[in-house]
Amino acid sequence: MFSGIKVSVKCEGVKNLAMATTEDKGFFKVDLPSDHTKTPSSNCFIKLLGGSNSLYASKKNQVSQIVKGREKNTYTISTPLSFFTSFDLPLPREWGLAPSSFYVPFFPIIGIP
Question: pTM for the complete prediction?
Fold first, then answer.
């Protein structure tokens, strides 16, 4: 389900981007981009780019910082990259509130003699 999603990795002070494609459970492996003349930057970010199907995400959920992992020479992301594969379209503002039948599925009968 989470395979085939493209992500990019950008490190501070490095011009090149690294690209990766996720595997079955959303995992991916990529070499962090670096200039060979400098020491690797510790300030790297990953960005969700998209997949074969449309993905919907807020801007804050598309980017995460890369941090050191538990094992030697491994890294992970600080926050999950979250997205939706579909979403409900909101009602246009000019429509105002929905009819009361959306909130109360029945109409009360009042004042019957």
Answer: 0.67
